[in-house]
Amino acid sequence: MARISHIITALATALLTCKGQFVYDCPLEWVSFGDHCYHFVFYPTLPFDEASQACHQDGASLVSVNTGEEHNFLVGWLARYDASEMYEWYTSGLQRGDLRVWSGDGDSLTPQDIYWIIDPATELQVSRTFPEAHLVYRYSDEDKRFGWAWASRTQSLPYICEINRDEVYRLYQRKRDFSYGNPSPNPGAWQIGPKFRLVSPGIVFAGRAKQITLECSAEGNPSPSYKWYKDYATDREKLVTATVRYTVTNGRLTINDPVEQEDPGTFTCVAENSVGKVFSPPVPVYFGFLNEFSNTKPGSRTAQLYQGAVIDCSPPSYNPALVYQWMKNMKQNIRPEMNPHTFLSENGNLYFSEVQAADAAEYHCIITLVAPPGEELASSQPIYGYSRGIQLNIQGEDANEFGPDIHDDFPTVFPQQPLRGKEMRIECLAYGRLPLHYSWSRVDGGTIPMERASFTSLNRVMHIADARLEDSGTYMCTVQGPKNVGTKNITLNVAAAPYFLFPLLDQHLDVGSHLTWVCDAVAIPRAKYAWYRDGQLLASNTNTSLGVQVQNNVLTINSADPDKHSGMYECVATNDHGTMISIAQIRVLSFAPTFDKEPIESSIMGSVGGNLTVFCRPEAAPQPTITWERNGSPLGTSGRAQTFPNGTLVLQGLSTGDNGVYTCKAENSLGTAQSSGRLTVLTRTTLFQRPSNTQVHQNSTAFLPCQASYAVNRTDLIYAWYFNNYLIDFNNDPSLSIAYQGGVEGLYIVGATYDHEGFYECRATTVYDNVNAHAYLTVMGPPDAPGGVHVHSHVGTEVTLWWQMGPQAEHGEITSLYRIHFSSNYNPQWRVLVDSISAYTTTFSEEADWQRYIIQANTLSPGTRYQFRVTASSPTFGYGEPSVASASIKLEDAAPIHAPEFVSGGGGSVGMLRVWWLPLAPENHGGYGLYYKVFWRMHRNPDDMWRGTKNKIYGDKPDRYGFVWFHQVVGEDYFYTQYDVKVQAVNDMGAGPNSTEEIVLSAEDIPVTTPQNVYAEGLNASAGRVYWDLPNNTREGMRGQVQGYQLNWWHWGEDNQREIIRFIRHYGTERSGVIIGLFANDDYWVDVQVFNTAGLSRPSGRAYMNTNYEAPLHYPDYVTVMSNGPDSVRVSWRGVSTVQIEAPVSGYKIWYWPYTDDIRTATAVQFGKVFSGIVDGLEMDKIYKLRVLATSDGGDGKKTPPTLFTLGGMVRFNPETSEVMASATLLKPSLICIVLFSAVSLYQV
């Protein structure tokens, strides 16, 4: 980029057109061609909408290509300077539907075939693959040139800006600010309207929330006053006033003990001063809830050993969001990162890539209520819930290698609609034999942003932080198994709540002037706009009397009037994903010309034979007419003296005869002013443009002018620059360069940092003499780190923190906010303790040089040693670097201030109440000797008093999952009884708060009820189904919750031999179950036992069961496949005959599946006792496998060997040689290759 910058350096002088109009050269880093200037922006790359706004900010637009010469110029520049030939470059060309247009100038986009690097037919097809296609310059390796192509709106690319030379003045014109027209140089005397610098995020209150705090803060002069409204700008609008529960203080609204029925709503802060009024973005406050899981035990899940499985959480209703965790047997947290075969999805489901024998267990889903990203949850305790146990049963034997098969739920993305600025979580999970290795890629030509991407859960989850529009695209998940590879794609489209790449700028208008104000937000879908003045809506059809026209995002004022148009304006951009507000002030100015701020220098020096430029820069509104006089006579505009409409005077070829008093006169309708300076033409070199003290924003560009008048015909001149008295070596510092701005030579400081702040000296030297001038550069940015951070005092857990801002700590802007971080001796990681502390709340009269903040009691824990550091922020530049850490301070020991969390329980031996909880972190112990007390009482029994533990329960030895356990004998008569339970932490200094009360069930007892009405029947030759009732499913009968049923069976001749009885267990509450692994045409006795966590009931009465005859022992033969239609084939076969031990054939089945898939994905088609059938729903150019089998009451018979076929019919082959013997009529040659490749595996199924 530096090489290109030197090549693009603009010319040094201004030009005169034939009409005498002053026309600027293209500025630094812009390239001139014809009557336009072009800016080729390599970095940063931007999506189309942001690139368009970046050009608009300079008064330019994305390039419109109107002639062949212009196209050739652009292609030539790119060929020379885009050396990598890897970039694509945005233009303003776009296609939306059938409309093709250059959005930069509105001209129609006429396709020129020779400009494209793809053929016209392909070009048309590609353009219609995007909802909105954008024309780019792309390099073609085939054609070895740049040309036109299409790209999507969200790709992040370099771009080309274009501006007419007649409008280049926009890049140079003096920018007005609040000092313009203000006689006082003191900013404290300027009238500045309110603008928000802090507005609270949305708040969800739930559970036992004690308090909600909303805060807004605005800058302005005079200081704004604040009001809060509920449901602002609606028919339900209500001003929030102080009540028993509501407190309003300096922009802070506090709601104590929020109530679900009264307090939810949308709150808006209104800030107002004498200049105008503005309102904040809406702050939603709403009630969150989490209902309880059903008390009915979920049905069990059955999985095949070494196959994939999923357990769904099925949470109760909730609002707004949940996070999920799973526990196994209420003892073991499921940790997918440590168990490669398990996966916990953001959707709450627990997946198993392959089920293992050890996975047979009871699983509990744990849910915790959380706030969505960007909002806060107000609750005194975590709100969570546990599901009843979900039993996972394992059956079957070892399986063959299979997979990886990516599950139908994946890949998937959370949230379902990714949003710009938020995190995207993309998940992938495959079933298959381990090990499975996951990787991610993009298949649409884009790249994964590795600087923002992270991978967790063994690469099954890809996180992309701070999602951007260019992250839209197609991502591929690849899963590598022991033998095979599985891939699957997901296409993501990142949407965006409105955001302003370039917010509205304050406007300082001349009275009577015209303003076209464009409010341009980037939003997907596109934003809808509304304009407000001092809080009042400016509707498009009701502003005639105001002289304001509103059309979507454009506000027009034809003749600015201070009474009608001065004030605060807000542009509100809204789409489905949010609302953003841009605020700016309009000042309509009307005053006579004045030279008070920039008078003509009283003494002007020039050199004989040299040139001289004198600027005339009065302030005036409306703009004045400027004329020049010499010694009281009008100065002509021809010859060696030229005057320009902007007030600039240029004198060429100076001689001593040009000496005299030069006067600039400025006149408008309100008055006249003039300023004079005496020109002395000397025989030595002089500086007529001198550097002046300058301010620049950090990382922005500053310009210090320095231009000499000298005898150009008899000597050369060189410039040298010094920084703090050291000569600048431009070769060693690429951020510094000499170039031109508006025809004036000077020093550019690009990407200014605090290290660039200091004194700069310009020295102009000829062979005869030299001259110099200096100026100070101030770099404006976020404040320096505060100093002297220390704990001034502390009482209990209330800590008073003091710090200082040094005299040079603020860089051009006052400190507005502070942020306090903390760390402790138990957790050295720095964390945010208090954010967005208003600076005015930290000042106090006793010590004017210090700031202080009182950390409220119970924010920190007693008995812990803390360190603090502070970061300062300014309204424009944000937070700077953190301070040096304070000295550590240990708070006095005291009783704990935190309660134990995640209290739950259940299970154990009969007569036992079992409770567990997460112990307090050491940081929250409050002191030495921490232990726990557990309290319990019967639920909903007012006569039962709270009872508590007598012995201390220490939490220093939690189980391997981090929980502390407690067991209490309550007696066998109190089996399966609900108890209210709470836990309290206690240390040597006293007891802390109790946890929330939870309902825990005591242990279950063995059921005394037994299943009744047992009935059994054969299902097929090897299985039977058993039915039963459970008439006494009560607490007294079941003595717990039904976990499932055990089906016992034995042969007819083995009666009363319980030790040889076989059994199978069915988990859940179903009243029937299947027994498998039986012999054909055999007689059995069966009985049923119900069980809970305590054990089995007595067996039921027995029932007789007889299995069916054998399934067909032979498979059909002579299978043929013939084409039958556009999506079907006819399959024929010869039937099978049965013998005495087989059940009669009742029909036939065809199993078919794509040859690349596993047989477990097969589709089964049932037929009666026929010998042919139609298989439909097939796809062209795809090879399938099929197998035919006979079926009967004994079950499915043996299957035929696999037959390969397509829509054209059978594919025949020799399995020993893999030689294709004959092809079906419609088989395409490309498919033959697939057949040869796959033939080796045809008989593996």
UniProtKB/TrEMBL annotation:
Every Ig-like domain range: 194-280, 281-368, 411-493, 498-587, 593-680, 685-778
C-type lectin domain residues: 33-162
InterPro entries registered for this protein in UniProt: C-type_lectin-like, C-type_lectin-like/link_sf, CTDL_fold, FN3_dom, FN3_sf, Ig-like_dom, Ig-like_dom_sf, Ig-like_fold
UniProt keywords, alphabetically: Disulfide bond, Immunoglobulin domain, Repeat, Signal
PANTHER family associated with the record: CONTACTIN, PROTEIN SIDEKICK
Biological processes, Gene Ontology terms: axon guidance; cell-cell adhesion
Pfam families hit by this protein: fn3, I-set, ig, Ig_3
UniProt superkingdom: Eukaryota
Protein name: Contactin
GO CC annotation, single: plasma membrane
Domain Fibronectin type-III, chain residue ranges per copy: 785-894, 1010-1110, 1115-1210
Keyword Phosphoprotein: no
Organism: Littorina saxatilis
Signal peptide from the UniProt entry: 1-20
